[in-house]
Specification:
271 residues; four-stranded antiparallel sheet
């Protein structure tokens, strides 16, 4: 029998080289993405390690600072050690010495300059302060890190206000206002500690800022806690009048005077 000849096989069109390269590249990217999606999470999980190891490393780092001078980077409040148990506000740049570290409590002493000044005034036993290890980590820096933070902070302020001198930029970073500041610059320096802002009656464009040592919200918390402990009744505004550190007066948007409350004398820092 005669067989019908099979139809000729269809001819395949050759795949262009650039198309083949694109397919291979896409496949490579898919494989790489799959590797990243799986491998990177595993890498970070391994790098993180157990919480116990991280806590031990943090504790070891703090213990290495015992005996060293630390500087306040974020203004903070510590408490005196002993019967008084009073709160003490430490401004940015204040130096202290870490003398002991016991579990959840760190013992601090005034820095060398303040200790010398206290001795000159006849204080034989400088005060001791207590803080938590978490507070040490968040609010204090050792000398090398503090020097870098101070330099960077002053540089950032000079970038914002190029007309400032290096000394004036550093004062703003340290939270020390001075006559001649604009309101914006003063807000950068002490804005967090402003308790009251009010216009001066009869003077257009004149305003006063009442400055405390803590933010207004922190003072409200202290006031509320005192009331709960049975402190004598008084308004919050009356309470704030006893917490005033200085009054800044602005005219035409420029700081023209810094006045301390009557009966108070400047401390170790402004005022």
């Amino acid at each position: 029998m005669l067989r019908r000849p099979a139809p000729p096989a269809p001819r395949r069109r050759p795949v262009q080289a650039d198309v083949r390269a694109g397919v291979e590249a896409a496949a490579g990217r898919s494989a790489a993405a799959a590797w990243i999606g799986v491998a990177l999470p595993l890498f970070f999980l391994a790098a993180a390690g157990p919480p116990e190891a991280s806590a031990a490393a943090s504790d070891a780092a703090l213990r290495a600072l015992v005996g060293q001078i630390l500087y306040v980077h974020n203004p903070t409040t510590v408490r005196t050690r002993g019967g008084g148990n009073l709160s003490v506000d430490l401004p940015r740049g204040q130096a202290v010495v870490l003398i002991e570290l016991h579990g959840d409590r760190a013992i601090l002493a005034p820095g060398p300059a303040d200790a010398g000044l206290l001795r000159a005034y006849g204080v034989r036993r400088p005060p001791r302060y207590t803080a938590s290890p978490a507070q040490l980590t968040a609010d204090f820096l050792p000398a090398p890190a503090w020097a870098k933070a101070r330099e960077e902070g002053a540089r950032r302020i000079r970038e914002r206000w190029p007309a400032l001198t290096a000394d004036h930029a550093l004062k703003i970073f340290l939270g020390e206002p001075f006559v001649g500041l604009t309101e914006e610059q003063a807000d950068e320096a002490v804005g967090r500690a402003v308790l009251v802002r009010e216009p001066i009656a009869g003077e257009d464009g004149a305003v006063t800022w009442t400055i405390g040592r803590r933010p207004r919200a922190a003072e409200l918390r202290v006031y509320t806690e005192a009331r709960e402990r049975g402190a004598r009744a008084r308004t919050f505004e009356e309470f704030l009048s006893t917490r005033t550190r200085a009054v800044l007066t602005f005219r035409g948007g420029v700081l023209v005077s810094i006045d301390t409350p009557e009966g108070q004398t400047p401390g170790l820092n402004w005022p």
